[in-house]
User: Which sequence fits this backbone?
């Protein structure tokens, strides 16, 4: 993780520690509230119950789904106007849900400007890429910017953010790590809620934070540490249904997952913002437990 932090800090595109606002969203992005649909049905039922027990607030009471889509021209860091990607398939997007009452954000389908740009232009240099993505480009920054806006830009309210969820995870690297943890801990079975819970004292928790779907939580805390403060992270991972995995299957993991429709979920609990965590204890690299 230290090496990843070092690479991230040296990345010219990371804009570490910068606070963005509504004008940054308007610079390249459209913002739309969209229907929840069945995005958070039975697959989130147990997690919502646990969050409601901890916060005394039911997430579904005010859960709002918002999509950011990079479909507008923008002014880059050099002051040049960059046209919007004409093809919708080339447009970055962040589709996420927010509950102020439950101190919760759930990131659903997401594809960053950097990912879309590199996917279409694999040989592009970092310097050129920086001129072709909007200043607001990281998932972590978009989550925090919208979260602040929904809190009326009241920092004391915004700092109460506690939960970051990832829904129906599609990233193959994250799924590979999660599948290995389930395989190891549950005798070749994936598990529904309450799933498996780990802290950063556990090797599994550290591995999950380093996944593509865990890093947004790390970057959010790093970049906005002056507001969010130190947090003692824990993570719960689960699947919608308990499905046996055949250890002797000749299918690839992705093929098998698709064949039996396994959905993966992750929920980071950043702890009480008013409670200073004790980091003096030596990590005990033990196993996981169930629950939030």
Assistant:
């Amino acid at each position: 993780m230290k090496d990843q932090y070092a690479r991230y800090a040296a990345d010219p595109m990371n804009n570490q520690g910068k606070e963005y606002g509504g004008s940054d969203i308007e610079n390249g992005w459209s913002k739309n509230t969209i229907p929840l649909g069945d995005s958070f049905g039975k697959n989130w039922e147990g997690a919502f119950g646990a969050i409601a027990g901890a916060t005394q607030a039911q997430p579904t009471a005010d859960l709002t789904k918002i999509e950011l889509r990079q479909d507008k021209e923008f002014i880059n860091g050099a002051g040049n106007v960059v046209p919007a990607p004409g093809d919708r398939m080339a447009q970055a997007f962040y589709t996420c849900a927010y509950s102020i009452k439950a101190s919760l954000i759930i990131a659903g389908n997401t594809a960053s400007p950097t990912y879309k740009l590199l996917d279409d232009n694999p040989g592009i240099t970092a310097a050129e890429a920086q001129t072709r993505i909007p200043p607001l480009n990281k998932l972590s920054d978009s989550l925090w910017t919208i979260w602040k806006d929904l809190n009326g830009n009241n920092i004391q309210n915004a700092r109460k953010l506690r939960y970051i969820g990832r829904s129906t995870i599609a990233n193959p690297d994250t799924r590979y790590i999660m599948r290995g943890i389930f395989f190891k801990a549950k005798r070749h079975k994936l598990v529904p809620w309450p799933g498996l819970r780990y802290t950063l004292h556990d090797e599994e928790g550290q591995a999950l934070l380093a996944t593509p779907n865990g890093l947004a939580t790390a970057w959010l805390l790093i970049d906005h540490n002056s507001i969010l403060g130190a947090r003692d992270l824990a993570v719960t991972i689960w699947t919608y249904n308990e499905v046996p995995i055949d250890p002797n299957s000749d299918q690839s993991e992705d093929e098998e997952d698709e064949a039996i429709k396994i959905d993966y979920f992750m929920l980071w609990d950043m702890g009480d913002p008013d409670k200073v965590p004790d980091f003096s204890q030596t990590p005990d690299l033990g196993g996981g437990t169930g629950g939030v």
Notes: The two ends are 24 Å apart (CA to CA).
